[in-house]
Amino acid sequence: MIDNALLISLSRQVALRREMDVIANNMANMNTSGFRSAEVLFEEHLMRGAEATANKRADRDLSYVMDRGTLHNFEPGALIPTDNPLDLAIDGEGWFVVQTPQGERYTRNGSFQLTSTGHLVTSEGYRVLGDGGPLIFNDEDRTISVAGDGTVSTEAGEKGRIRVVRFADQTSLKAEGNSVFRADDVQPEILDQPRVLQGMIEKSNVKPLLEMSRMIEVTRAYASMTSMIERADNLRRDAISALGRID
């Protein structure tokens, strides 16, 4: 019975450490543009104890804690002006499409920049895709203007239209890094009328006070589990010592 108590407490501690890791990552990215906060989803795992035939009273299932997965909060972050013409934000639904070495990915982080080759890229260096492929500028393109529907133009004319897509079910997206997501089993739909804002950036949707509150709760719960494990371990030591004195 004491061993069961120890194992159950340990399962809870492992879950709490996982939850603390997620909270710490949220806090570390509270200033990352387009970052989506996450939380851990746990479930109860019931395991039957000793066989009922070996005991007079009915057995009780043992309840362990299991880490089932990570859920992301896809609520939009606040939009703030930056006066940087390469900063873009999407007002409402939609995702920017970027080209990574692993294929197309999706982000709400519109903190873009130009490379020496004229490519419009993310802060991670991923190329931003338009309807016709990567967006490229040359020396004649001095003033970049982005219309509300994502059409990019300069003094030399139109350069393309930023591809903005939507997903019917965003919960299927998987995070890769801090602000990039991939879609394994779903296909995005082109958003015909996106609302792209130039000179704006979408902040993280992390709520610092909420995360601090969660961190305190997890810390207290972890300390409580540690104390419980120590008491259970002391009980086991006392039991072993008492058995050793029996003639």
From TrEMBL:
| UniProt main location, coarse | other
Under Pfam families, the record lists: Flg_bb_rod (PF00460), Flg_bbr_C (PF06429), LlgE_F_G_D1 (PF22692)
| Gene Ontology BP terms | bacterial-type flagellum-dependent swarming motility
The UniProt entry, under InterPro entries, shows:
Flag_bb_rod_N (IPR001444), Flagellar_basal_body_rod_CS (IPR019776), Flagellar_FlgE/F/G (IPR020013), Flg_bb/hook_C_dom (IPR010930), FlgE/F/G-like (IPR037925), FlgF (IPR012836), LlgE_F_G-like_D1 (IPR053967)
Q: Which terms are listed as keywords in the entry?
A: Bacterial flagellum, Cell projection, Cilium, Flagellum
Can the keyword Protein transport be found in this entry's annotation? no
GO terms for cellular component: bacterial-type flagellum basal body, rod
Where is the Flagellar basal-body/hook protein C-terminal domain positioned along the sequence?
198-241
Q: Which domain of life is it from?
A: Bacteria
Q: Where is the Flagellar basal body rod protein N-terminal domain?
A: 6-36
Give residue ranges for domain Flagellar hook protein FlgE/F/G-like D1.
89-153
UniProt-annotated location(s): Bacterial flagellum basal body
Phosphoprotein among keywords: no
Q: Which family does it belong to?
A: Belongs to the flagella basal body rod proteins family.
Q: How does it assemble?
A: The basal body constitutes a major portion of the flagellar organelle and consists of five rings (E,L,P,S, and M) mounted on a central rod. The rod consists of about 26 subunits of FlgG in the distal portion, and FlgB, FlgC and FlgF are thought to build up the proximal portion of the rod with about 6 subunits each.
What name does UniProt use for this protein? Flagellar basal-body rod protein FlgF
- Species this protein is from: Tepidamorphus gemmatus
